[in-house]
Amino acid sequence: MNKILAGGMTTLFAAMALSSSALASDVEVLHWWTAGGEAAALNVLKEDLKSKDIGWQDMPVAGGGGEAASTTLKARVAAGNPPAAAQLLGMAVREWAAEGALGDLSEVAKKDNWDAVLPGSVKQFAINDGKWVAAPVEIHRPNWLWINAKVFKDNGLTPPKTWEEFNSVAQKLKDKGITPLAHGGQPWQDATVFDDVVLGLGGADFYRKAIHELDPEALGSDTMTKVFDQMRVIRGFVDDNFSGRDWNLATAMLIKGEAGMQLMGDWAKGEIVRAKVVPGEDILCVPAPDTEGSFLWIADFFAGYDVSDEKRPAQLQLASSIMSKDFQEAFSLVKGSIPARTDIGPDKFDACGKRSMKDIAEADKNNTLVGSLAHGTAQTSSVQRAIFDVVTQHFNSDMPSEVAVAALQNAVEAAK
Ligand code: GAL
């Protein structure tokens, strides 16, 4: 047996042993929320369930963006031993539903009237074939630029609004020996930056054409060449040790002032809040360059898997708790997100949360609300992976932009 297979089997058996000791009133949840701010947010859910006499069986699979979690989940389902619930991004909800692997949450969704309190963008993933298959926990915005206010003040800089301004402030920081951009070289993090650049340089309509519709003309356009040009410039603004760094360690560099900026979704705010630093004051949040007026969105869902009847009540309770008004607010305050429910006001949120709520409403009205590729809200997993590969290869080599554009077109064609 080869090593990878053997490793996978060991994980699988360990997971099976764990789940067979579960009580019927336990709910086993597979997720990738292992960073400090994420774990703290998850605790809000664990406590809520505890108060309802439901035990939490933790199945964490570390790795931002959820790629490793997805591999473990596939193995569990293939072995006929799915967890009661798993954290999924939108397109993954669709893919699992198409496989017929998800349980039906409609009973609780109808009772709690989810239909009336969720936006259409979220419902298009949570409902499949007329059935509710997943409960959204929150909404995150990946197109944020986080700025260390002290670093900027000390160096007489103002937050950049455009990529041109970004390049200019980043160069000034670099000249002073400060790492301009805290970044972790992992494919999903590279893709998070790529998303921002495509949206910034192309605008929401271009993003939709290229990334959602995979329009060959948009993918092969001059704008896309410029996107890769900008990615190359950004590559010059990260430190030498960026490769493989976890996103939360990059956020720690930003908080400590070891770097001036980070392009990251607002789960970074979970780390900021936990470090007792004030978002909007000590760490500023501005839309990623040139993306003001547009909103890239993602939601984390918990989907229920098809489990035995005795595990169903705990699974349904989990879904009901996730969608309760109190939970949605309490969770997002810790996680850095905004509630998925539209009937929760901004009062308790900080400046960045308030801005997110306002911006998403406006973007929805103006048709500039777009699902993020990097975070599973735009493409099937195979197309997503194909684009990640090109973006990461380009970022880590001297590949000219024209070559990257051609590679992007080919990879997308092959993966479609
Ligand atoms: C995203 C997820 C976020 C966040 C991030 C880093 O895919 O939706 O909630 O935790 O990964 O792990």
From TrEMBL:
Residues 1-24 form the signal peptide. It comes from the Bacteria. This is Probable sugar-binding periplasmic protein. Keywords: Periplasm, Signal, Sugar transport, Transport. Belongs to the bacterial solute-binding protein 1 family. Pfam families: SBP_bac_1. It is found in: Periplasm.
